[in-house]
Amino acid sequence: MRAVWIGASSGGTGLIGEAARGTMTQKTGAILFSALSAVLAAAPAHSFQNSEDMTDRLDAVEFRLRADAALVFAAGSYGGNILADLDTRFEWEAISQNGWRWGLEFGLHAQSDIPREGFANSAGQVLTTRRRSLATGRYRGGSGQAGRRAFAIEHLNVFLKAGWGEWRVGLTPGAAQVEAINLPTGSAYLRLDGGPLGLGRNVLTRTINAGAGFGPSLVYSTPRIIGFRASASFAPQARYCAVDLCLADAITGGAGSGSFENMFEAGLSFDHSFAEAGQFEAALNLTTGDPLSVEFTDDYAAIGAELRWSRDGLSLGVSSLWANNAISGGEYQAVAIATRYDIGDWSFGAELAASEDDYLQESENAAQLTLSRLVGDRFTVTFGLHSTKREFTTPSAQAVVNNTENGSGAFLEFSFRN
């Protein structure tokens, strides 16, 4: 057996109780989840049952450590903020003599952000009833937090990789996030499509099809064949509160639970580089689940789609999300467009985003420009300008009133990626 130390590169970043609808679906989901988990847990042991010694079983053991961090200074009509984010990942992997790779992934995420619960935050006063958008986590009714520091385990899973695909079980992103494509944004943290950090409480656009978030899931991904790869996942209970994706219980004095049961996810992606045309990426993902809150009368469904093209330092991308918010007439729609041009150590970026949430009765248009400079191999300094226009409704003594709120700001971001 040989031991290998590898410092892994980060790749892209990326990157939702009350009364349940019935115990039978919970028990059925839990039984299915347990059975599939047992298959995964048994697979490596079965492959080694004829081996006499652990030394003979493994061809290599690898360790990978990743750490991404950012410090952001923001100013403007949102007020001055100092934001911080630290995302670490550790992976232990054993390689058997038959080529199977299996191991453990563990990751911690810490953050100091603006007043918001993960991405979610208060959208405003109650209109007729307290409401929560399942697509974004934003809510009406209940006061927003005055400040927030968060820490959570976002990865704790075992995995098996073989020629026929990859299995993961535990705390891990579901299939919709596995097959998603990152937009070519100038900032990895302050993004218009719902980045880890945010400039203002009222930033509301999100195109991430979050599904079960980072909660306990069973995920299977096929090998990539002729550019295509597919993934599927299942979570019997989706109520885990991570840092950016918090499928929280009901807010005290506010909106209902954002938790689910029997969350199914599926995704299909394409990634191929052509000699003359450049690199093309495309993805389509679907999530469906049963909301645990009696606030929602339908099953939840969401569809996300992304496209990206890159060639000679120029990248263009578009990301979109549609969700029914599990209630008739409560649809959420969002689209984000981004472009980035890399020349040497410099990067120039531009983003546009628009969203509309019929359930919360609010919409947003936003724009952002960035200029970035790579310092060494792992440090990046980014300066950005940001502008938003939000339209929303508020109750009055006579009727519901339409309102408009404009915001603008600037930020300076220092990031480290290993």
Global Rg: 22 Å
Number of strands: 20
CATH superfamily: Porin
Largest sheet: 16 strands, antiparallel, barrel
CATH class descriptor name: Mainly Beta
Poorly predicted regions = 1-28, 39-52
Percent strand equals: over 45%
- Proportion of helical residues: under 10%
CATH structural architecture: Beta Barrel
Q: Averaged pLDDT, please?
A: 83
Instruction: Enumerate how many helices there are, as a single number.
Output: 3
**Which class of secondary structure composition applies to the elements?**
mainly beta
CATH topology: Porin
Description:
Strands 2-3-4-8-9-10-11-12-13-14-15-16-17-18-19-20 form a 16-stranded antiparallel barrel. It is built from three helices and 20 strands. Helix content is 8%, strand content 53%. It is globular. It has a single domain, classed as Porin. By secondary structure, the chain is mostly beta strands.
Could you give a short description of this structure?
The protein is mainly β and 418 residues long. Helices cover 8% and strands 53% of the residues. It has 3 helices and 20 strands.
List the helices and strands and how they pair.
Layout: E1 3-7, H1 23-47, H2 54-57, E2 58-76, E3 81-96, E4 101-113, E5 122-124, E6 131-132, E7 139-140, E8 148-162, E9 165-171, H3 175-178, E10 216-221, E11 228-238, E12 260-274, E13 278-291, E14 300-311, E15 314-323, E16 332-343, E17 346-357, E18 362-375, E19 379-395, E20 400-417
Parallel strand pairs: 1-2, 5-7
Antiparallel strand pairs: 2-3, 2-20, 3-4, 4-8, 6-7, 8-9, 9-10, 10-11, 11-12, 12-13, 13-14, 14-15, 15-16, 16-17, 17-18, 18-19, 19-20
